Amino acid sequence: MLKRPTAGESDDDLLQQEQELMARGEFQPSAKLISVNKRKTEEPVSPKSSDTGAATPRSKFAQDRAAKKKKEGIVDNTVLTEVVSQKEKVPVLGRIVERVVPAGHSLQEWHPTPSPHGFPKAQRLQNLKGTVSNSGPGTKKKSIYLQNLEKKGLIVKEECFKSVPISSEGSPVTAHASQDPRLSALGKQSCVITGDGIQQNKSEMDKIHQQNIGKLASMTHEERMKEKQELFSNLTSEQITLLQSFRQRKEMAQKDSASRASDKKSSDQSNLAVDNEKKTAQSTPMECEDLQRSEEGRPSSSDAPSSSEPMHEGDSVDVKTRSVKFSSDVEMKEVADNEENLELELPIPPSEARKWLHMDKVDMEKLQWMTNMPKPKPLKDSEGFVARFNFEGDILPYDADVSYREGLHHHGEEPGRAGYTLDELFILIRSQVLQQRHLGLRTLANILRNAKEGLYDTCVNPSVVQLTVEAGAVLLLRFALDDSSHLVYSEAVRGLYYLIASEPDEQCLALAQPWLPAGLEPGISSDIHASEKIRQELDQEEAELKDFEIIKLDIIRALVRMDTHIRLRYDGDVGCSDVCLLSATGWYLLEIIKPGPETVINIMGIFLRMVRHSLTAAWTLIRTPRLISTIMTNFLPHNLSPLLTGETVDSMTSVYGIPLRHALRLLTILATKGRQLAAVLVNTHNIMSHVLTYVSLEPSEVSIPLQEALALSQEAYRMWAVLLTYGLSKSQEAVASFYPLLVKQLVFYRDKVSVNEETDKNKFNYDVGAHMIAALTAAVNVAATHSLLENRMKLNQGTVIGADGKAEVLVPPELTWDDLKDLPQLVETCLTKWLAQLTRSNEATFSALRLIGSCCNFLEAYYCKWKDQTSYSGDVHNKKIQHLHNNIISPILISPYFKTLIASLPSHSSLISDLVPGTERDPNNLGSAGCVTFGGEVVPVLRPSSPHPMLLPITNLLVSLHTLHPALNAHALCELLDSDEISVYLKKVCQSSHQLSSQWLTRIETYFICNLLQLAALKGCSRRQLYHETAMCMMACVHKGDEHIIKELLTNVICAKEFISDLTEMSTHVGDLSLNNYEPLKSPAITQPVLSPLQLTESICQSLKSIERELIRSLVSKREYDASVVLKNGIPFIINGVTISQTESPLVLDSYWSLNPIKYVFKVSQRPPQPQEQKAAGHSSDLSTPEDILTVTRCLQMAYLTLKHRKTTIHTTTTTTWMYHLSLVFLVACDMFLDACISSNLQGCVVELLGSEGYSKLDPSSTIEGFTSFTDWYRNMLEQFISVSYGDSTFALFLLIPLQQYWSVDFRMLLWGDKSDALQFFRLTVEQVDQFIPLQQFMEPAEQDEGMIIKYRSAIGSGAVSAARTPFLHRVATHHTSLYLQRQADKQRNSA
Q1: CB–CB of 591/502 below 8 Å?
Q2: Which end of the chain is more exposed for a tag (fewer CB within 10 A), N or C?
């Protein structure tokens, strides 16, 4: 007896026991497994089963496998013998379908026989036993279904064909045809019946044909002719011709087939018998008859189409041309006149194809797909075509010569063209085949990636992203995330990332840090979310909307609502039924599945895009259970010991346990959204400990590649700077604890890093140093508040307003000013070294300029905050500033390298560039930062050779230094401001269209130009008018978050007398003014307006301070101004976020900024007054207030200054919009236009706008804000004119503008018809109107509308207009009326 192995035995003992076991020979196992109702292997057929029916035939593969197993002695036991039933097996039909119950059948007639079994016993088909006879090798056994049909007599057996005589055409000869030669001429097959609707059944077609022949045989010749004439009388000539053509084509086809048969008879004789035998054995019952006819009656296989080439719907009887249909739109025709040519084109002949396994029935149509591909249809001139993409997402040319081996050709539309359309890719994505879904998703992701890079902008319209979104790509990708295959959900994640996010945008935004002012980050949302009013409505109605409806409004919002951020953590290998369980138990994709590196990075990108969308989405992500902890545990590990193994990340298949800069960037952007979010990361997730780990990371000690290690340190410093921006306590403590390390790093940069040597090698050193110094700058801002908060705490004075509305006393920060006393000297030394290197090398990289810019920002913050400290000493402060300016900054300003940077400004200017914003390709429900312009170019300010990373910080430093120390030597600075390079640059800025002014990164250039303007205001310049015009242009380019710039421009430049000195000198050149002879229009008020340019200009110069105050108060709200000042100065205890949310307009003002206060006053006047407000005011709301009159007056003065003396700044505006803004003066209140100052400046603006043929540039089709249409605006103006105008001439002049003949007749009909009461108040004379608008504009062309002529005659006849009271309107009406009467008289004379 054999014993079991024990624990103490060695491998030799086990091998010896195995030999003993094998030596005992065969033995019977304790249990035996057999296969039931599966393929049989070596088990013999039981004798009991032989009488139950025919045994199941084995395939060739099964026979070979059984023989192989029998030869090798393998026994396949899969089922326990004890549980196998011994009942005899009965063959039954495997596929069960629902029985069709005829109509009217009643179940009451059914009386089933009771059965003692639990289920009715399957009926045996013993009567079919032995009915199958094998006619030879290779003959296929008939199915049970076919045997049953033969038994019931529903089909004819093969033997019946032998008794039917066959004609020469291969069809049975009927008695009718043999008796009447006329009927024999009709043939044995129908020429008209094609078999449509009966699946081209040959036997049915012949049966119908024989029935028709029988009917004709029973009729006499006269009856046939009579029926023929009656049939022809009911058919058109085209139908008759068509029917006759059927027989002609068939006869020609028979002749051609006969000629080909004679040529091929000898070569095909040997193969015909074998082929027909195979066809007979494998054909269905409906094909048997045709095959038998081919065998016995046809001379060769080419006389008629064989059963292997069945006729399809739409195929013609003519075999000269054969149609192969690929779709409803594309049809390929193959010339069949010479079948030898076709066979030569095939890679293998049909006879060879029949020898292949399972290819004995050759499909010629499929073989034709193996021939040369058809050429695409030629395109007409400038004709568009559907874009087709390869698997890399590239658009293929229309006639691209692509090899079929690329797998880009298919059986869809346009089979001759390679590639897949978007519709075809969507079909692949919905496929049930895993490989097709994976291929479709991967290709779609590549297409979206290329689209975000702008590769399709100039060749696809509308944009590819818009098309994919409208086609339902969002839901398609979202559902693909639920797939269990990693091939599918990984590509779905990648596709979703490229759809909603933009990798170029993120790279550009990262490059703009840390030298972007205040370190701001953009919020990126849809147009719907950007509108506060619509967003509030959506918040209220979102619960009632479905997911696809939310997608149409806002994709990111819909994805958050569909819990996409949660699904990205689902276990993809678990069934759909476990999704709810997964949501409850917290098994997530990032935790359980642990996908590959690319998928993890894409998931981080999706989360980052959601965070940028809104504060609500950011809170949703951070509140998701275990999401942040999972990211920090797996991708921001605190323990870096696994990286000390020496294995590089490039060779790893998983990034779990590896610190990822993408994850750290996600948390950094999350922290920029708000103070509370940053506090959660610090206090709950202890992010600072991870940051310090990566800051102190030594790249040489870990296996991370140097580039990745430095990039990780760069992101860690960026996170540290953001946390210091809020003044969070743990970030302050980290500065104190890591202070020696920071000093050591600065010493390294001072001694080892150069900006003109080994620039490529030091690229990442530059980037890390720039972010490190930016973090130190934030630390300086925190330390600067210590003395302030300490003093206020001692006095128990509140600093910030809390949630309860009371001022809270803040605890001073732990970081003090003296803690950072060593840093300024080190940074200043580094800056001195690097600027000196630039003056010698004349070359620096983008990253090196970022490093220098960070040093400038640090020194600016330090010297600005030093004056607020208790240790401040004026003499020491001024000496250090003077040393910095004279010895460090001034030399670089006069260096050739700096002049080269200034000369390169026009080529790196977003304001001068004529590029179209990249947001044009974005759907309205998605949005992007638009850093890649339309056409694929990066915004000019961020090009690799851009000078802005250095110019912006150094001008910031210069502004601060000259503000703190006005006595600094400004020789080098003035030389810079008066240089030709700056002059050329500013002129181009003023003359450009500013197409990229709303792009986020354009704020860099706007800030830089405003610094130049402030320096010119501080130190003076010779080109004051140019700087004044530039300042007025910059007012419309200021972004949200920089509102303080507006006040600086108005105070220092626009409303400064030094910059409008050219206006004050006008008094000595009065004779040069062209408007001296203009007479002002009369007003019903006591004080009449003046239209003298001299007087208007003098009034402006005297009111500059008042204009400044009113514009500052009206253009920017105090809350927005204070928030921007806090961000600019970096006050940590007040800053609540460094992200600027997207709004309807990213700019603070538009090009009509001088009249914006009037628009605001008009909107306020349109609101229904509250009872409390009306009571407090003490007067009617229809009357204007003194404050409103003053505001409107100052706005009109600034508008007149712009239109009269600074016309170069309004080239991007339209006359129509200017006139609309000015017309609001009449609608604001019932008496405002009667003020003399307002009327004077209003007339002056109108003169400037309508001059130089401005009256002909008005566009009546433009939209007007606040009104549904231009007609609606005109109606409101007429109603106001009738009510309160008192015949004011200026008001009447505005209403005459739409009466010009090139405007629509609807405006004239409105005045002369519905609002004819206003006619009596138009007291303008022809001379008064002509000095603004030529009279010819109202006279030509002649009025053609008869209804308008009737209105003219009615007004003249009723006395509504007269030469004495309304001379101008009377002149116009009589002119058009007389011309009309003259035309009528000429017509009557000509007709007579």
Answers
A1: no
A2: N
**34 touches 43 (CB < 8 A):** yes
Which H or E element spans position 332? strand 331-335
Residue type, 1292: A
Q: What is the pLDDT of residues 63-96, one digit of tens each?
A: 776 776 666 555 444 333 333 344 444 444 444 4
Alpha-helical (H) ranges within 430-480 are 434-452, 464-470, 473-480
Pairing of strands 807-808, 800-801: antiparallel
Rounded to whole angstroms, the Cα distance separating 746 from 756 reads 18
Count of other CB atoms within 10 angstroms of residue 397: 12
Largest pairwise CA distance in the chain: 140
Place of tokens 């000595």: 1068
pLDDT in tens, 1034-1066: 999 999 999 999 999 999 999 998 888 888 776
696 contact partners, CB below 8 Å, separation of at least 6: 738, 741
Residue of 987, 1037, 1034 lying closest to 1014 (CA atoms): 1034
Tokens of 1237: 């100052």
Question: Which of these, 1293, 1213, 1212, 1287, lies nearest to 1246 by C-alpha position?
Answer: 1293
φ/ψ of residue 105, rounded to 5: -75, 135
Distance CA 238, CA 1349 (A): 57
How many residues in total does the chain contain?
A: 1392
Amino acid, res. 547: D
Contact 346, 370 (CB under 8 A): yes
Residue 334: strand, helix, or coil: strand
Global model pTM greater than 0.85: no
Q: What element of type H or E holds 559?
A: helix 555-561
531-554 average pLDDT score? 84
* Spatial contact of 1365 and 1321, defined as CB atoms under 8 Å apart: no
Distance (Å) of CA 438 to CA 432, 435, 441: 11, 5, 5
Residue 1269 exposure: Cα atoms within 13 Å on the Cβ side: 8
DSSP annotation of 799 = -
The three-class DSSP label of residue 1141 is: coil
